[in-house]
Amino acid sequence: MQSMSDQRLLDYFHRRQGEILETIGLFVSHETPSHDKPRLDAFADLLAGRLAAVGASVEIITQPTRGNHLRARFIHGNATEKPALVLCHYDTVWPVGSLATHPFRIEDGKAYGPGIFDMQSSLALVEYALRGVGELDIQLPRPITLLITSDEEIGSGSSRALIEEEAKQAAYVLVMESPLPGGALKTRRKGTGSFTVETIGRAAHAGVDPYQGVNAIEEMAHQVLTIHALADREAGTTLSVGVIEGGTATNVVPARAKARVDVRAWTQAEADRITEAMAALQPVLPGAQVIVRGGWNRPPLERSATGALFERVRNIGRRLGMELEEGGTGGGSDGNFTGALGVPTLDGLGAPGAGAHADHEHILIDEIPGRVALLTAIWKELEPP
């Protein structure tokens, strides 16, 4: 049953829907590709100023090559409990110049723009949730820590340690990534990894001494079949050899070949199985060698880390008139790191829409107030045990 406080939240954010949308447009208008440090740093400064204006204590965590990260702490009530950690990233996959062909625009109830769904709109949702807490004088049961990173789209290499450090101190983690189609929250994500397999043979003249050589590409062909056979469709474990290179000329028996392999799994048990199997690859051709490098970039996010938190959030959503669903995705996020630590984690709390990384990337405008109200209500309702 919806309470007066729930309706107050919804009314507040409905009144500010246009203002929130304007802020989303502002954020989308700043292009922030993952490898462009000057643009990333400038945008981090913009976010820092806006968050400070709503009462957060903001710290810029400088990076030597990647964009700077931003950590904001917000207290409006109990300051002694473990904080709620909110994870965002502000880098996008869109190159500079994308706004010329994909400008921010509003059409048929949708707002379009590069990175708007993944995940510039979420930055505005979090800012206005903090505004709402202050303006409505909502006493929170615990502090909020907001961590906004600059390299999620390229693997979180410079931010993973920071994310894990903050997660270990948190009561729970909310990941503001985009939801699944229909607005479903993400309670499972596959772990993701990448291996490089190199086969080494022996060069020889393909016409004069073909049998003196050991063909590294032939050896790689055997390895590719072995690698693909490790997949388990029923378990959802996939391996894909996506890039192969090797050889020097058609008249030379190739001495080297290299393949890059994408791996994904729903469970840590399957991830461990693949790690062991990849390490155990053996050459088939006499005289050939096989070298395997790489591993898992993100561990799986399993429902054991998300299920209980999802059920509590679903009940909060019902009081706001939302029937929240759950699902899983083959892509990873920074929530994979926190869930693997055993910290209760829930992903997909951004604005509903579609088209992440695609030409039609958009959010649904009328869903904005509800999602900000949900985030605020989670902060308000998830009290210490």
Key words describing this protein structure:
four-stranded antiparallel β-sheet, about 375 residues, elongated, 2 domains, alpha+beta, Alpha-Beta Plaits
Structure report:
The protein is α+β, with helices and mostly antiparallel strands. It has 2 domains: 4-189 and 300-381, Zn peptidases (Aminopeptidase), CATH 3.40.630.10; 191-298, Alpha-Beta Plaits (2-Layer Sandwich). The chain contains 11 helices and 18 strands. The protein has helices at 4-15, 17-28, 37-53, 98-101, 116-135, 160-168, 216-229, 268-279, 303-319, 335-340, 368-381; strands at 57-61, 69-74, 84-89, 105-107, 110-112, 144-149, 172-175, 185-189, 191-200, 204-205, 238-246, 252-253, 256-265, 289-298, 326-329, 345-346, 353-354, 362-364. Strand 1 (57-61) and strand 2 form a beta hairpin. The two termini are 23 Å apart.
